[in-house]
Amino acid sequence: MSIQAWTTALVGVSFTLYIGIAIWTKARSTSEFYVAGKGVHPLANGMATAADWMSAASFISMAGIVSFMGRDGSVYLMGWTGGYVLLALLLAPYLRKFGKFTVPEFVGERYYSQSARLVAVVCAIFVSFTYVAGQMRGVGVVFSRFLEVDITTGVIIGMAIVFCYAVLGGMKGITYTQVAQYCILIFAYMVPAIFISILLTGHAVPQVGFGSTLIDGSGISLLDKLDQLNVDLGFDQYTNGSKGTLDVLCITAALMVGTAGLPHVIIRFFTVPKVSDARLSAGYALLFIAILYTTAPAVAAFSRTNFIETIHNKPYSEAPSWFKNWEKTGLVKWQDQNDDGLMQYQGKHAKNSGAPVKNELSVDRDIMVLANPEIARLPNWVIALVAAGGLAAALSTAAGLLLVISTSISHDLLKSVFMPEITERKELMYARIAASAAVLVAGYFGAHPPGFVAQVVAFAFGLAASSFFPAIILGIFFKRMNKEGAITGMLTGIIFTAGYICYFKFIDPAANTSENWLFGISPEGIGTLGMLLNVTVALAVAKFTSPPPAEVREMINRIRVPRH
Predict the structure, then answer these.
(1) Residue 542 has what pLDDT?
(2) What gap in Å lies between CA 485 and CA 535, rounded to an integer?
(3) Collapsing DSSP states into helix, strand and coil, what is residue 212?
(4) In whole angstroms, what is the distance from residue 521 CA to residue 136 CA?
(5) For residues 334 and 327, is the Cβ–Cβ distance under 8 A?
(6) In this predicted model, what pLDDT tens digit does every residue of 275-289 receive, in sequence order?
(7) How far apart are CA 412 and CA 122, in angstroms?
(8) Cβ(186)–Cβ(193) below 8 Å
């Protein structure tokens, strides 16, 4: 069977499974739509949380960005993994003890203010739409290559599938769909990684192969060879970093605290029966996440090595089939600079005799994981399996984000603020309408994203770090924090961070260099500074305004003893 036939078959089966689960678990109450009736088993919730959290950025883009950036790309590995630990230890049990539906609901009640709730709703919607753009972009990339349609058409297909199980099933349908999606995505990620590790190093465990000697008889390790290949082509050494220390620190911190402030991840811990189950499901999720995250550096190194060796200085007339296939999507391009017919892939430090030769290859880093099995000449069914896994990763997170958007509108805006008298049936109807509208907006952003997948997602984490995280953490651990401080802090953090990102990415992209960044901090890391501004402003305002009421302080005492 051809790659397209295998892809159609595997993707068709997986999509049928998702829709079938959605119909089987259709939500019939607001509790089932928002938090799956709080009856999810910790093991299932751990798998669903892992799928919710490991988005297209984790599956498609993370190893891709590490393969191009080398050690500099490790900030994504450290930030996202560390952030989940932070979430599991500091937030999950306490928010589950609170026992409500959404993060804006926690903010509204903790800060005894509808204004605080509204600010939290705006932040949730803003963060979620930024994040979901990356997921829909990932869906479009997969479809554009493996089903040979353009990216926009691929996004529309993804929208239709998400619409079916997110709008019908709500959190209940999404949860059990995400369990299936986790199984698919982790299997799809590990199978090619194991195959390629055996082919290159003789080790079946990719994490071991990553640091092992190649079996080509050269006697050198994989990383030493990759370092030499990079240097020979004029790139920085793969194992050396070029980013400033402060920028690395800020990006890592923004990803960590951004993870802990992401509403679609936090809401997962509202779906289990007890506080102890929230802790247990957090532990399961960390284990499931670690399987992929410890494999990603190996996948990055494998794909980078094979990519260079199969492309550089080869005649275009003899280009491998994978290159021609991806070239049709526009995500890989070759432009002959010296009319010699050779595909030359070079970095800024390349040294050439005679007239300098520019880099002739343009490669979208989001393709590296998806193209990896093709580059390594693995069987067609493995290539198709990776496509199904990439779709599972993107769609699982997109569904969680769309649910956050719909519940923020239906529950936190309509039911809690503007239409408190509406019945549960009408609230459920408005939730589905909001989810439907959110799917359409998400599809637009997916077709017109502001960057590659991991970069777009990094922006979302920065926005979450500068808005939600300080309000939640201070709300749990600092009883003196009041509504004035929380509102002012959230607004300061997200306005500063969003303004900084928008300036360098949209208003003046030419100025997006380290020389022009504030303190040398890139847009991907500015969320850390936004978070510090949020905390500083919130504490200062709280100090000079009235303390929270006694009943709020008592509520905090109850939340901070998460024993049952």
Answers:
(1) 93
(2) 9
(3) coil
(4) 28
(5) yes
(6) 778 778 888 888 898
(7) 10
(8) no
- In the DSSP assignment, the letter for residue 562 is -
For residues 180 and 274, give the distance between their C-alpha atoms in angstroms, rounded to a whole number: 23
Q: What is the 3-state secondary structure (H, E, C) of 459-512?
A: HHHHHHHHHHHHHHHHHHHCCCCCHHHHHHHHHHHHHHHHHHHHHHHHHCHHHC
Residue pair 12/6 in contact by the 8 Å Cβ criterion:
no
Residue keyed to tokens 């911190």: 253
CA distances from 418 to 106, 408, 413, 437 (A): 18, 13, 6, 19
CB 193 within 8 A of CB 180: no
Burial classification of residue 379, based on how many CB atoms lie within 10 Å of its CB (0-12 exposed, 13-18 middle, 19 or more buried)? middle
Residues 6+ apart with CB under 8 A from 245: none
Sorting pLDDT into bands at 50, 70 and 90, what band is 59? confident
Q: What are phi and psi of 202, to 5 degrees?
A: 85, 0
Tokens for 292?
Answer: 């992929």
Q: Do 482 and 111 meet the contact criterion of CB atoms below 8 Å apart?
A: yes
With cut-offs at 50, 70 and 90, classify the pLDDT of residue 96. confident
Question: In whole angstroms, what separates CA 148 from the centre of its chain?
Answer: 25
**pLDDT tens-digit profile of 6-29?**
888 888 888 888 778 777 776 666
User: Distance (Å, rounded) from C-alpha 332 to C-alpha 375?
Assistant: 13
Binned at pLDDT 50, 70 and 90, residue 327 comes out as confident
Compute the radius of gyration of the chain from its Cα atoms. 24
Question: What pLDDT sits at residue 352?
Answer: 62
pLDDT at res. 30:
67
| Location of structure tokens 């709008």 | 167
pLDDT band at residue 35 under the 50/70/90 scheme: low
pLDDT, tens digit (0-9, with 9 covering 90-100), for 198-227: 999 989 999 988 888 888 878 888 888 888
Considering all CA atoms of the chain, what is the largest pairwise distance in Å, rounded to the nearest integer? Answer: 78
Residue type, 450: P
Question: Are 261 and 124 spatial neighbours (Cβ–Cβ below 8 Å)?
Answer: no
489-504 pLDDT per residue, tens: 989 998 999 899 888 8
d(CA 172, CA 378): 37
Q: Which two tokens stand for residue 445?
A: 């952003």
Task: Output phi, psi for 335, to 5 deg.
Answer: -130, 115
How many separate helices (H) and strands (E) can be counted in the chain? 25, 4
Is the pLDDT at 355 greater than 60? The verdict is no
- Compute the distance between CA of residue 93 and CA of residue 298 in angstroms, rounded to an integer: 34
Instruction: Give 3-304+372-559's CATH code, choosing from 3.30.450.20, 1.10.10.1100, 3.30.2390.10, 1.20.1730.10.
Output: 1.20.1730.10
Q: Which helix (H) or strand (E) holds 361?
A: strand 361-363
Domain boundaries, the chain: 3-304+372-559
The model's pTM: 0.80
Q: What is the pLDDT of residue 21?
A: 79
